[in-house]
Amino acid sequence: MRALTPADLVRHAxxxxxxxxEAWQLSLREWKALYADxxxxxxxVMEALMTRYxxxxxxxxxxxxxxxxxxxxxxxx
Length: 77
Fold this sequence. Notes:
single chain; 2 domains; about 70% helix
């Protein structure tokens, strides 16, 4: 594994939405926070919650959609 260069650090910061000027002004604590493992993204968390605690209306809509799909396949439409 190669060592990170200053350019690598700035690219990472810019990828996180900072400007290069803001990246150069970060403290060591801020750099550590920037590189910290943030865990799963919001989308993954929301999907897990929706699977674990399904909303009745969403479940009904999904069931109706699946039934309509089966109906269309059977009719050959």
